Amino acid sequence: MERTLSIIKPNAVIDNNIGNIIKMFEDQGLRIAAAKLTHLSKEKAEGFYIEHKERPFFGELVTFMTSAPVMLMVLEGENAVMKNREIMGATNPAEAAEGTIRKLYAKSIGENAAHGSDSLQSADREVNYFFDKNEVNSRW
Ligand code: ATP
Ligand code: MG
Q1: Which are the contacts of 138, defined by CB distance < 8 A and separation ≥ 6?
Q2: Is any atom of ligand 1 closer than 6 Å to the C-beta of 61?
Q3: Per the domain annotation, does 69 fall within a domain?
Q4: Which of 7, 53, 54, 70 is the most buried (most CB within 10 A)?
Q5: Domain count, the chain
Q6: What are the tens digits of pLDDT across the range 49-62?
Q7: pTM score > 0.90 for this model?
Q8: Is 115 a catalytic residue?
Q9: Domain assignment present for 37
Q10: Ligand 1 pocket member 124 (CB < 6 A)
């Protein structure tokens, strides 16, 4: 069993696709162990994406992630980190496989509908960055 952090990004929240995306996770056997709808501050978004600080798209990324609410979730299940990445599809929706979240709901490489932790180590950091221990309702 693993835990991973999922974020439904502002474009998908604005487009009313929260339910569609959660259904995809549940249908694939991932469980929602924690969830909150919140509007990120600039500081919180910058800290979350700190690994991308030197990238040319960093400013644009932070502006987008703070432009509207996001849905933060902890997903748990077997192989949750990689399973979440598979359900999301490639970062660039033009390269995302049919039936993936990004193929269905992304607008562009920046406004790409969802985030998922890319390793167990980053999942641990990201879950703790947004959730207190007592907010995570594990079924393990
Ligand atoms: P995420 O971390 O959001 O799950 P990812 O791991 O697939 O996405 P990263 O390389 O970590 O991709 O990039 C983080 C985010 O930065 C992307 O999801 C996207 O929103 C944005 N991004 C990445 N590359 C670009 C780009 N070339 N132009 C604009 N935005 C980009
Ligand atoms: Mg990433």
Answers
A1: 3, 33, 76
A2: yes
A3: yes
A4: 70
A5: 1
A6: 999 999 999 999 99
A7: yes
A8: yes
A9: yes
A10: no
